Amino acid sequence: MKKKNEIVKPDGDLELRPEDEVKGVEPISLTKPIMINGTKYVSLTLNFEQLTGEHLERIEAELFQKGIVMTGPSETNKIYLMYVVAAAAGIGYNFIKTASLRDITKMTCLAQGFLMQ
């Protein structure tokens, strides 16, 4: 089912777009499409503004459960930032980690910039 902010491209790929240009909402074109539940996505929309302390609490709890220890500030930890990106995109971490290294770096830098501003 097509979401309100999805654009179906002529080749059948889905592209997620923000409904309005809002600070903290970042449309990201992916250099390598990712598959989410059998659908190929060529872009994602990261909505950092919708995140709350509850999201960050869940992220830290999940990292702790997996035995991942952050030795420095969480805002500089790539795995932590990948979880933030997944939450901002409204998708699971398992989908984000299948993105290309270039895309992950671009998205985690945006997350870090948002958290540090």
The profile of the biggest β sheet is: 4 strands, mixed
Total of helices: 4
Structural class of the helices, strands and pairings?
Answer: alpha+beta
In what range is the share of β-strand residues? Answer: 15-25%
Helix-strand string? EEEEHHHH
> What is the subunit organization of this protein?
single chain
**Overall tally of domains:** 1
* Mean pLDDT reading: 84
- Give the CA-based shape: globular
From the alpha-carbon coordinates, what is the Rg to the nearest angstrom?
14 Å
Termini separation: 36 Å
What level of helicity do the residues show?
Answer: 25-40%
Q: Which regions contain 5 or more consecutive residues with pLDDT less than 50?
A: 1-5, 18-22
Total strands: 4
Output the strand order for the largest sheet.
1-2-4-3
Describe it for me?
This protein is an alpha+beta fold. It has one domain (6-116). 38% of the residues lie in helices and 23% in strands. It has four helices and four strands. It has helices at 53-65, 78-89, 93-96, 101-116, and strands at residues 6-8, 14-16, 25-36, 39-47. Strands 1-2-4-3 form a four-stranded mixed beta sheet, with helices on one face. Strand 1 and strand 2 (14-16) form a beta hairpin. Helix 1 crosses helix 2 and helix 2 crosses helix 4. The chain is globular and about 35 Å long. It starts with 5 loop residues before the first strand and ends with a helix. This is Phage tail assembly protein. The chain crosses the membrane at residues 79-96. Keywords: Membrane, Transmembrane, Transmembrane helix.
